[in-house]
Write a structure and sequence with these properties.
single chain; eight-stranded mixed beta sheet; binds magnesium ion; 814 residues; alpha/beta; binds phosphoenolpyruvate; eight-stranded parallel beta barrel; 14% strand
């Protein structure tokens, strides 16, 4: 058990079917992996029922584990037992009677709904709550729909109470608090013993663990949000949420950034003139040009079992829980797969775990209402709640319906769309709305393109289509639904148009343009993969800035020659504590493994300044932009740096070349000390006989003007330097990079920057050192050409800037 909670409370789940107990355990464990949760279900021979012996064993083991793992002397540790049916309760009671009295006093049998109770108990126990508090959380877990709704739409009373803490910040990530960030928020908040709400200042906030309620607030980029926290961990939770928001919920560097849609403005179609007759105009959501015939994707309403009759609500609740669990398991599999599909599956998992959805369905279960009907009604309520909002909130309505159908499918309802994949190959598929789950199937069926009446550019379906290079135009309006099957069309997703039944010469010319476009894209892809070479034959390394495995994959796909900046802190950003050496080594190894042997520059932890990690107790002043941040923080916490250096060297073993680099270096003495610590870590690992690889080069970032001005001295200590132009700009211009009030002074391309860069590059080259630039400046084609002209050896940038920068260098380098 990890350190942290003062009391330790374990959970035993007793059910009549082993799979049910195990399923609930899986669900609860996902939200509170550190809590000891044991599942015991079925009879000893695998039948339906309960086993006295198995329950006794599970409870005894859990009580012992709780006693051993606890740092609590108050006796508040113990075990909460939850069960599915009354007869399980009877067996569990019998078990308690046979325990020795010491143990009996530490076990509470709690009458609570199994699924919600387990989730509530687990998340409460994870926060370090005592036995009575965990039991109470389980008991109170069941909230009828009306109350659940109320809980989401008004600030909890305790947050208005004395002791509640609040803070405001501005949303920075382009899509605002949509489903994926809301899921990250819910996961983070569950780590704390605190009630947290998020909303606009002055309005009641949404419970931060309710993904749908948060999404429904429609909080977009630029919106000021107020976060209120109450409870034992209020301050820590508040700081963690603010830090997560300020990091853009991990979405600031998305490989395929989604432009912010302005629904109040006209659709950004190709030309402002009204479309020609026979042309429907929408928004290009995934680019491309396609000539094909139309096939409709017609979706029928799910055929639900009739209401009435005699249903057992408890049995229906279990069926529903099992179906939700099955869908959750499928999503978990996809979430582990990487790429945009993985992120979306993760967001869907979080929506599915939203208590409002399941509680809403369970409140509708009665003798006349089976699970399918109750679930579907709850889904439609949630869908309509979201659909009533502005984009991109309304776009999430489709996700809820998609998820709802998946659970219906798991309950045995036929939810397949009317068109089979084999019918749509090479066609332009027309649909009123496209679900995320349709997109993968349509891609596999090799459809030529997709034309959607509604939808949006920031919808998950559109994101997935872009990932698959599947041309898609959305918002074509209801007229597109009148285009008959078999009609020839030109789908031009470059400017968001659909030409319906054009004359043959126009079709022929569009076919030719489509062939030319395909050839051009192929050429750009091949060229991006090649190295850029100067006229004198020396190569320019165009590399990528990455923060995790998905970005590393995107970097390779975009044609990165190497990774010029691996921001290690992004691996830890949503964690309540820093991972240990083994975990860090494994996670870094996973990133390096994506690079196919390409070299990677790993930057040691860069915290402080604009990066306030929840795992560390960082003070905005002490660790602020001019404070103890970057390498300064690492020197002040030698164990932390040592652990990380050891993890990086271990991760490097068996992969391509790894270079190590320190952030926020000011003096040559700091550079020397860093290098010595790297040597020390390597020496330790060698002495222990642990497998590791020595970094091929050790370098520092130049982000502080002083370092640029004494680059000759710094270069005497290291093998390479890499300019962090983002921070260098803020220090040269004395304009905080996060402060909009001085945003006009934050100019990476200011002449002052170019003069300083000139000094730095000249000194580095005179010392024979490799010099790179890895801030945003490197990803701007004009600046990239100028930097290489000055003698910079390497430019490192966000992956999707690579093809453009390579093309600019090729055409403009003399
Ligand atoms: C920089 O400062 O330019 C840089 C690349 O580092 P970060 O943006 O992570 O601070
Ligand atoms: Mg920096």
């Amino acid at each position: 058990m990890p350190e942290g909670p003062v009391a330790q409370v374990g959970i035993v789940l007793v059910a009549h079917v082993a799979a049910l107990a195990e399923g609930v355990r899986t669900l609860a464990a996902q939200m509170a992996p550190e809590v000891d949760i044991r599942a015991v279900g079925g009879t000893g021979d695998g039948g339906v029922g309960t086993s006295f012996d198995a329950i006794l064993d599970a409870i005894q083991e859990a009580v012992t584990a709780a006693g051993e793992g606890s740092q609590d002397s108050s006796g508040d540790s113990g075990v909460v037992v939850l069960y599915d049916l009354g007869s399980a309760q009877l067996t569990a009671e019998l078990v308690l009677e046979t325990l020795d009295p010491d143990h009996t006093a530490r076990v509470l049998l709690v009458d609570a709904p199994l699924v919600e109770g387990a989730v509530a108990a687990a998340t409460t126990a994870a926060g370090g709550a005592g036995l009575a508090e965990v039991a109470a959380a389980a008991r109170e877990a069941y909230t009828p729909a009306a109350e659940a709704g109320a809980a989401e739409t008004s600030e909890p009373a305790e947050n208005r109470a004395e002791g509640a803490v609040r803070a405001r910040t501005t949303l920075r990530n382009s899509a605002g608090l949509h489903a994926r960030p809301a899921a990250a928020l819910a996961r983070l908040v569950r780590e704390y013993d605190a009630r947290v709400t998020v909303g606009r200042p002055g309005e009641p906030g949404a419970d931060a663990t309710g993904v749908l309620a948060v999404v429904a607030r429609g909080l977009r980029v630029g919106a000021e949000i107020e976060v209120v926290a109450a409870g034992a961990d209020a301050r820590a939770a508040l700081d963690a949420v603010i830090a997560l928001a300020d990091e853009g919920f991990g979405e600031l560097d998305e490989t395929a950034p989604v432009p912010v849609e302005q629904p109040d403005q006209p659709a950004p179609a190709g030309s402002p003139e009204p479309p020609e007759p026979g042309t429907l105009r929408g928004i290009g959501a995934s680019t491309g040009l396609v000539v094909a015939t139309v096939r409709h994707l017609r979706r029928t309403e799910p055929r639900l079992p009739s209401t009435g009759g005699a249903h057992d609500p408890a049995a229906e609740r279990r069926r529903l829980a099992a179906a939700v669990d099955r869908v959750n398991t499928e999503l978990a599999g996809r979430a582990a797969g990487g790429g945009s599909g993985a992120d979306i599956a993760g967001a869907h998992q979080a929506m599915l775990a939203d208590p409002a959805l399941l509680a809403g369905a369970e409140a509708k279960l009665d003798a006349a209402t089976p699970a399918e009907v109750a679930w579907w009604r709850s889904v439609l309520e949630a869908r309509d709640l979201l659909a009533g909002g502005a984009d991109p909130v309304a776009e999430r309505a489709v996700d809820v319906e998609d998820l709802g159908r998946a659970v219906l499918g798991a309950l045995g309802v036929d939810v397949r769309p009317s068109v089979r994949p084999e019918d749509v190959a090479h066609a332009v598929v027309v649909a009123e709305e496209v679900f995320p789950s349709d997109v993968a199937a349509l891609g596999e069926a090799e459809v030529a393109g997709v034309a959607v009446a509604r939808g949006g550019r920031t919808s998950h379906a559109a994101i997935l289509a872009r990932g698959l290079d599947l041309p898609m135009v959305v918002r074509l309006g209801p007229d597109v639904l009148d285009v008959a099957d078999g009609t020839p069309v030109i789908l031009d997703a470059r400017n968001g148009e659909l030409r319906v039944d054009p004359p043959e010469p126009e079709l022929a010319s569009a076919r030719q343009s489509a062939r030319d476009l395909a050839a051009e894209r192929e050429r750009a892809r091949t060229e991006a993969a090649g190295t850029v070479v100067r006229a004198d034959g020396t190569p320019v390394t165009v590399s990528a800035n990455v923060g995790g495995p998905a970005e590393a994959r995107a970097a390779v796909a975009a044609g990165a020659d190497a990774v010029g900046l691996l921001r290690t802190e992004l691996l830890y950003v949503d964690r309540p504590r820093l991972p240990g050496e083994d975990e860090q080594a494994a996670e870094l190894g996973a990133v390096l493994a994506e690079l196919g042997g390409r070299r990677a520059v790993v930057r040691t932890l860069d915290v402080g300044g604009d990066k306030l990690l929840p795992a560390l107790d960082l003070d905005p002043w002490r660790h602020g932009p001019l404070g103890e941040r970057g390498l300064r923080y690492a020197f002040a916490h030698p164990d932390l740096l040592r652990t990380q250096l050891r993890a990086v060297l271990r991760a490097a073993y068996g992969h391509g070349e790894v270079w190590l680099m320190a952030p926020m270096v000011t003096t040559a003495a700091e550079a020397r000390r860093f290098r010595l610590l790297v040597e020390e870590a390597a020496g330790e690992l060698a002495a222990e006989g642990t497998a590791f690889a020595r970094p091929a080069m050790v370098g520092v970032m130049v982000e502080v003007p002083a370092a640029a001005l004494v680059a000759d001295r710094i270069c005497a200590e290291v093998d390479f330097v890499s300019v962090g132009s983002n921070d260098l700009t803020q220090y040269v211009m004395a304009a905080d990079r996060t402060n909009d009030a001085v945003g006009d002074l934050y100019q990476p391309g200011h002449e002052a920057m170019w003069r300083l860069l000139g000094t730095l590059v000249e000194a580095s080259r005179a010392a024979g050192r490799h010099v790179a630039v890895c801030g945003e400046l490197a990803g701007e084609p004009d600046a990239a050409v100028r930097l290489v002209g000055m003698g910079v050896d390497e430019l490192s940038m966000t992956p999707n800037a690579i093809p453009g920068v390579k093309a600019a260098l090729r055409s403009r380098l003399s």
